[in-house]
Structure formats: C-alpha cells, structure tokens
Amino acid sequence: MRIAALAAVALALSHAAWAADIEVASKVDAVTVYPDGASVTRKAAVDLPAGASTLVLRGLPATIDPASLRVAGEGSVAFGIGSVEARSVPGNPRPAIDPVLESKIKALREKREIVAARAEAAERTRAMIRRYAEASPEKLSPDGKAMDVAHWPDAWNAVGRELVKVNEDLRVLGAELRDLDGEIAAMERARPQPSRPGAPLYDVTIALDAPAASKAALTVTYRVAGASWRPLYDARLDTGGKGKKPALELVRRSSVTQRTGEAWTDVALTVSTVRVARGSGAPALSSARVDFRPPPQPAPRDRLDEVASRRAAPATTAPAPAAPMTGGVAPPPPPPEPAREQQAVVQAGAFQASFGVPGRVTIPEDGSAKTFRISGATVAPVLSIKTTPVLDPTAYLQASFTNEEEAPLLPGQVAIHRDGTFVGQSTLPLVAQGDKVDLSFGADDQVKVVRVPLARRQAEPGFLSSSRTDTLEFKTTVKNLHDFPVKITVVDRIPVADNTAITVETLTQSTPPTEPTVEDKRGVMAWTWDYAAGEQKEIRLAYRLKWPSDREIVTEGR
C-alpha cells in the first residue's frame, strides 16, 4: 500500500511538472459586430511540448462574456483541448499619453512664455513713461534746469504718443495670451484619461495535451459588450429628363463604434443584423389579477405626529429644476464620393443577414465611428408628387421602389440627394425584402398648391333642435406646371369624434377621395390623380359638426 501511494504521489508530481504554463501572444484576427455587441476571434501560434500543458492568454478585456469562450485549433499532430477558464485579474493602468498632443501642448507653453516676457517688458516701458510724465519740469532738462515752456508741448506729445503705442502693444499681447491659454486648456482637456488602477482584466487559460512536441495554431472566440453598428443610407436620385428615365441609387453603409478595451487593428470585419443581448426567448407572461382596493389603514401615531410637524414647519422654496439643455445639431455633410467604392459581400439567411467588409480594417477603441459601404443598388423608381396643404402647401417629390435586395433594409438615417444636390436627411423604417419603399426628395416648385376656406356656417339651437352645428367647406387647387404628366397625391382630413354625442358628417359637395383612409388613420383621406402638363384640378372638402347646445367642443390640430 505504501509503495502504491508513493507511486501515485510521484505520478501526480510528474504530471504537474508536465503541465507547464505557457504564455501565448495572440492577435485579434476577425470581428463580427452586431447592433448590441461583437464576436471577436483571436489567433495564436504556439510550440506545444509533449504531454500536458496550460496556455495562458493574458490581459483580455473585462467586457468578455466568459460563457461565450470557445477554443479550436490544429497542429502537426493531433492534440486534445481540455478545460477553458477565464480568470478575472487586476489590470495595470496603461499610460494615457498622446505624444503628438503632448508636443503641441509643450510648443504652446513655450510660445506663451515668449509672449508673457514681451508683455512684461511692455508693462515696464509703460511704467517708465508714466514716471517721466509725472516728473517736475526742472528734472526733464539735461542740465537740471527747468524745461523751457516752449518745449512742453513736444514733451506732452512724445509722452502721449509713446503711451498710446505701448498700450496698443499690451492689448495685442493680452489677447494673444488669452488665445494661447484657451488652446492649452482645450488640449489639456483632450488628453486621454488613464484607466483606473486595478481595472479588471481577464486571463484565459487553456489546458492542452499533446502526444508529442508540435506546432499548433489556436483560435479563441468570445463575445464582448461595448461595440455596435448602425445602418446609414445614401439615396441619390437622377430625375432624368427628355428621353431619359429616372434612376435611384441606394447605398447602404454601416457605422461601427467600439469601446471594448482592446484594439481592433487590421482585422477582417463583418457586420450582422443579429441582436445578441436580448436573450434567447420571449419573456414568460404571468397572470394579471384584479381585486378590490383594500380600505385605507389608519396611520400610526408617530407618523401622524411627523406629518403634523411638517405642516407646522415653515415652507421652504425648492430649487427650480434646471432647464433642459437644447441645441440643434446640424446634419453632417454628405460623405465624399470616391471614384470607386469597395462593397461588402452579403450573406443572407432566413433569420439574419451578414455583410463582410472587403479587405482588413482598423476600428479604434475610443468610440469614434468608422463608416463602410456594405451594399448598393440602382433601381428604376416611380416618381410622384405628394402634398398636405392643410399643414403645408408645398408639393414634395417622392420616389417609390421595391426592395429587391437579399437582406431587409434596417431602420436608419438617409442622406437625400437629388440631381447631384444634397437636399436634406430623412429616416427609413424597417423594410423587408419585397416591400415598397417611399422616399421624399424635397420640394417641387413646378407644382402649385392653394387651399382656401370657402364657407363656414354656425347654427345655434332653435325651436325644433337642441343641438348646435358648424359647417365648413374648403377648396384645394392643384396645377401641374411641368411640361410632362405627373401623378399628384393630395392628403387632407376631417375631424373625428371620440364622443358619441358629437357627430361629423361629410357633405355631398365634397370630392370623393380615391383613398378614404390613409395608413389606417381615421379622418385622413387622399386624392391621387394623373395631371397632364399644365393641367389644373380642384378638390372640395365640406363637413358638418353637430353637438349638444349645453356643451362646448374643441377641435385639436385644426
């Protein structure tokens, strides 16, 4: 028994000696970015000894999800992969020094010292001029005698002239000092902040067992938080002309940002539509119960005393809440169009779409966005005009087309260009494959729209009726000033009543709409007609409101 125990201890010690820790250098090779996270793939090359060993990848970011760690590998001989663990360790703060920024700050400080020295010399000169001006006349003559009165004006002019000159020099130098102080302060605020001492990191350990010494290549994949991408679009419409049909180019882009704590340098980048942080299933729904509210319980005596003391205490004025900060951000200018842009490779499946960005890219870890073109298509749109004269008599050009790309169009901002001119920004909702897309491309001044009220009649209750009525009638005139036919849609509305005591009646003089209900909105209707070149049409809308005479009504949004 004793011999067997000694043999077991010797075997265990020899196995521990074989399982040596080997620190492995790894590099991020590929990244797949999701709207709410990222999957990172690291590669490492290692010389494996024979027997058991433990590889250690040190200093991985704290944003890793340990449950997502996966390891794969291949080598010159078959080897086994055992346990994979992620251990949280305190990290060393990295020096947050930007050499370029520090050199600029140093140069500005040296320039400030020079300007400050010039300002000090000018200040001393001004003090000497003032002392000269305050001296008695007998001290101003070279021989110590009083200066002749005839020379006093020259002395005054000299003192005034020099004082004006030195004051101007001090004003200029003071402004230069203030500008330099502002630049230095701005650059000091722009210094990168050092990471907190002891910020946690992860060390990943991988247990391996090889029958013989060999070379191996390992791939470590894990999911991280702190990364995302959002879709952006460029819509470029060529309205065509005589003998030329309109064309619309829709370019899809991805704007990628990351603050994962690790550098993504020269990596293969893919963006995916999968959301990885929402969980894997729908939440469980429990029963909702309804019951009578329990009667209020009397407050305890000490609580009543506290309330009474608060009422007796003098009221204090609460500080006014801070006004919300507002401020419009001007839309960014459209990105410059290079001669030829590389485009991503689309991999569309039944439940997701992925776009592989061509080449290898670098994404900084400071949260700044990098934008890549991932797809583009040119379609033949259907042009039309849409106007809502009850709100704005302007006619707007619209282009409609069907999404025939392999992947859906995700919600995002669209930079709108018409005939080479950037006309503004719009938003695109989620558009599935095969669905219709409508985009607006700015005002069309060649379509004139005028909406005017024709009549309004209000009737008070009489002998036979206890109700009040209000009758309104409007006329909308639309004229096509183009030299070609165009389809124009006019959208208008009548009030809708949520109370059954109020009735809204559309009158017979109204022009029947081609679309009685627009986008399932009650009371909103549309008239869509083809207008020939120079053609003008009228639309009449009349309705009557009726309600009890002892009540007052209010129409919202009129």
What secondary-structure arrangement, pairings included, does this model have?
Layout (H helix, E strand, L loop, with lengths): L1 H17 L1 E4 L3 E8 L2 E12 L2 E10 L9 E6 L4 E11 L8 H36 L17 H38 L10 E11 L3 E11 L2 E12 L8 E12 L5 E9 L28 H12 L32 E4 L4 E4 L4 E3 L6 E10 L2 E7 L3 E11 L9 E7 L2 E8 L7 E8 L3 E13 L7 E14 L5 E8 L9 E4 L17 E8 L4 E13 L10
Parallel strand pairs: 1-4, 2-11, 9-18, 16-23
Antiparallel strand pairs: 2-3, 3-8, 4-7, 5-8, 6-7, 9-10, 10-15, 11-13, 11-14, 12-13, 16-17, 17-20, 18-19, 21-22, 22-26, 23-25, 24-26
Name the descriptors.
single chain, 558 residues, alpha+beta, 4 domains, eight-stranded mixed beta sheet, five-stranded mixed beta sheet, 26 strands, 18% helix, extended, disordered N terminus
Helix content: 10-25%
Distance between the termini: 99 Å
Strand content: 35-45%
Write the H/E string, N to C: HEEEEEEHHEEEEEHEEEEEEEEEEEEEEE
Given helix and strand content, the structural type is alpha+beta
DSSP, total strands:
26
What number of domains?
4
Describe the structure.
- The protein is of the alpha+beta class.
- It has four domains: 26-32 and 39-89 and 199-224, no CATH class; 99-189; 227-276 and 342-387 and 401-435, no CATH class; 447-548, no CATH class.
- The chain is 18% helix and 41% strand.
- The chain is built from four helices and 26 strands.
- It has helices at residues 2-18, 99-134, 152-189, 301-312, and strands at 20-23, 27-34, 37-48, 51-60, 70-75, 80-90, 200-210, 214-224, 227-238, 247-258, 264-272, 345-348, 353-356, 361-363, 370-379, 382-388, 392-402, 412-418, 421-428, 436-443, 447-459, 467-480, 486-493, 503-506, 524-531, 536-548.
- The strands form five sheets. Strands 2, 3, 5, 8, 11, 12, 13 and 14 form an eight-stranded mixed sheet that branches. It has a five-stranded mixed sheet with strand order 15-10-9-18-19, with no helix packed on it. Strands 20-17-16-23-25 form a five-stranded mixed sheet, with no helix packed on it.
- Strand 18 and strand 19 form a beta hairpin.
- Helix 2 (99-134) packs antiparallel against helix 3 (152-189).
- The longest helix is centred in the first third of the chain and has 38 residues, at 152-189.
